[in-house]
Amino acid sequence: MSIAVNPPPSVRSFRSPTAGTPRVTMVLRPTVSTTAAAVPILTKLQHECATPLPLLRNIAADMAADMRAGLSVDGGGELKMILSYVDSLPTGHERGLFYALDLGGTNFRVLRTQLGGRDERVIATEFEQVSIPQDLMSGTSEELFDFIASALARFVKKEGGKFVLPNGRSRETGFTFSFPVNQTSIDSGILIKWTKGFSVSGTPGKDIVACLNEAMGRQGLDMRVSALVNDTVATLAGARYWDGDVMVAVILGTGTNACYVESVDAIPKLQGHKSSSRKTIINTEWGAFSNGLPLTEYDKEMDAESINPGEQLFEKTISGMYLGEIVRRVLVRMAETGSLFGNYVPKKLQTPFALGTPNISSMQQDTSEDLEAVGSILYEATGVDSNLDARKMVVEVCDTIAKRGGRLAGAGIVGILQKMEEDSKGVVFGKRMVVAMDGALYEHYPQYKKYLKNVVAELLGPELSSHVVIEHSKDGSGIGAALLAATNSIYEH
Ligand code: ADP
Ligand code: MG
């Protein structure tokens, strides 16, 4: 890393949104920044974030052990290993009209699909996205579900054309619900608590399928929920419809989770659960894993200040909500003790979550000689003014955090594959096996994706990894929930 001596004053132009020419040109004070004092901070960070193969092998083995502990008894390990009650996956033979409803954040999506069996497959799909008014996120349960059911009813009214409901049948929907639920059957589940900014009164402790069914009844809507699933399970189902070798699904978005196809004989805690296929999908909730993670002081501080200290440590190390924030914390340290951006530290840089994971991903895509995009993203997001050496240093920090995240996520995947293989030889190794991936972090952060894929190959070795396909399954979860409504239909199929 070279050291900048007497950097030139930086010039920044502000453009008005309408005019094409710069409105104001301002000469900022010279940035007397030097990267020299920040170098040891970077070196220490890289050292602490290192993920050599022996460490990752241990992570994979611990993940497998934790999975086994969670399968033997509830609360047996950090991973909850939740039963999804999804015992039959789509085959491609599904026929008919099915709906899906996805509630997981500030928006919900409604979707309908007309399935035409083996030959015609997906004849048509339509969807709509509706944003949830802020006041309903902290209102009553009835208000929220009435709002959802009325939007659904309006969507159903527009049904026509290629979408046909056979005479005498009720409509069926899959319900993707990405909040913690104690699932009690494929079509019922008790809400444990709201998360992600929701604080709706009256729902925790209640069956959310019953809440939705009642609201649909109040709207006079002839529809029933036939499958309640989380987004990871829906992704697996959506990908499996097109490819029978899909055995695992992983979400890397705001948070992270993974699910996989398990043999019922390998689930000691499962008592009296009948599955004609002898297989069922297990939702691992792997974000809770924590054994042996290479954590830095920045991770520990972020965790301590979070709403759930000590929890979801794997998620906090690998998922989209946190990667940008970890980078920001490192940059604050470099600015404060290393004067990376001159001798003042803007308020914005000190604001938690000012730097998002999309920001650090965009900065890593900058291939220009003077790293102009890095400079403007840094300025926009954190208010810092940077010279070329500082920008290079920032990109190194982003890469260090993305590399650790991608490699740990890859080790987690290998842990799942090893667990599956240990229990039933030949189930994943020695034949084609697909891991379906979804989530904007995986989709839009090429370096992260590359680190993840490469480490899976490194850990498995050339022979085994040649059979493992890690594939992006875009938006599989929407159609996946509709497909699970089909496989769990009360009608003959
Ligand atoms: P969710 O997980 O909330 O269902 P997404 O799969 O869309 O939704 O993931 C959103 C998250 O993905 C964001 O919080 C952000 O951290 C991350 N993300 C979005 N765009 C990018 C990007 N261009 N590069 C890296 N990460 C991104
Ligand atoms: Mg999602």
The helicity comes to 40-55%
Biggest β-sheet: count, sense, barrel? 6 strands, mixed
Which hetero ligands occur in this complex?
Answer: adenosine-5'-diphosphate, magnesium ion
The overall average pLDDT, rounded, is 90
Q: Count the E strands.
A: 15
The oligomeric state is single chain
Q: Give the amount of beta strand, in percent.
A: 15-25%
Shape, principal axes of CA atoms: globular
SSE succession = EEHHEEEHEHEEEHEHEEEHHHHHHEHHEH
Query: Which segments are poorly predicted (pLDDT under 50) over 5 or more consecutive residues?
Result: 1-32
Structural class: alpha/beta
Radius of gyration: 25 Å
Strand order of the largest sheet: 3-13-12-11-14-15
SS summary, helix count: 15
Distance between the termini: 65 Å
Throw out a few tags for this protein.
493 residues; alpha/beta; 6-stranded mixed sheet; binds adenosine-5'-diphosphate; binds magnesium ion
Would you give an account of this structure?
- It is a single chain.
- The protein has helices at residues 39-48, 53-72, 117-120, 141-157, 208-218, 231-242, 297-304, 313-318, 320-338, 357-364, 372-382, 388-423, 440-444, 446-465, 476-487, and strands spanning 11-15, 22-27, 82-83, 95-103, 107-116, 122-131, 171-177, 181-185, 188-191, 223-229, 246-252, 256-263, 279-283, 433-438, 468-472.
- It starts with 10 loop residues before the first strand and ends in a 6-residue tail after the last helix.
- The chain is α/β, with parallel strands linked by helices and 493 residues long.
- A hairpin with a 3-residue loop joins strand 4 (95-103) and strand 5.
- Helix 2 (53-72) packs across helix 12 (388-423), helix 6 crosses helix 15 and helix 9 packs across helix 10.
- The structure holds adenosine-5'-diphosphate (ADP) and magnesium ion.
- Magnesium ion binds next to loops.
